[in-house]
Design goal:
Residues 160-174 have a biased composition (Polar residues). By secondary structure, the protein is mainly alpha-helical. It has a domain at 2-86. Helices cover 84% and strands 0% of the residues. It is rod-shaped.
């Protein structure tokens, strides 16, 4: 017979060894009959549980991978942002330089063409002088100079207005 520690249970009529045994074993649930009768079913259930756990683990791993990829994408985007800003600033600077250079180049072209016209006119004036009086030639030259000056001023004004309008539209759109 098993020896039982009865020190916790002082011996009296209610605490006989049989009574104590009942109290100790009353909380223990007996195994279900199905599990005892069908060990194959028990194995199948365990396998199913394992498969479910594996699936859950795989899903969790996939979620973690997705999160890592998202983080990497975010980091790459953050790295690219300052580069894009630098590129935009460089483009703006280039555009501004082009705008500054354009009127200068146009003015140079106009001055060249005016020089050529003046040289051509001087050559014509020299030939024309032999046939006509000097007073008539002076009038022509003064009229031509006035026309050239007024044309040149109008062109310069329109160019500066165009540049100013372009800058304003850029500022509005940016």
């Amino acid at each position: 017979m098993l020896e039982m520690d009865t020190s916790e249970y002082p011996y009296n009529e209610c605490n006989t060894p049989a009574q104590i045994y009942k109290k100790v074993t009353s909380g223990v649930k007996p195994q279900s009959l199905e599990k005892v009768e069908n060990p194959e079913q028990q194995q199948q259930q365990q396998q199913q549980q394992q498969q479910q756990q594996q699936q859950k683990q795989q899903e969790q791993e996939q979620e973690q991978e997705l999160q890592q990829k998202k983080q990497q994408q975010l980091e790459q985007e953050q790295e690219q942002q300052p580069k894009q800003q630098e590129q935009q600033e460089q483009q703006q600077e280039q555009q501004e330089q082009q705008q500054k250079q354009q009127p200068l180049q146009q003015q140079k072209k106009q001055l060249k063409s005016q020089d050529q016209q003046q040289q051509h006119q001087l050559h014509q004036d020299a030939q024309h002088q032999e046939q006509q009086q000097s007073q008539h030639q002076e009038k022509q030259q003064s009229q031509h100079q006035e026309q050239q000056q007024s044309q040149h001023q109008e062109q310069q004004q329109s160019q500066t207005q165009n540049v100013y309008m372009q800058r304003q539209t850029k500022q509005i759109y940016s």
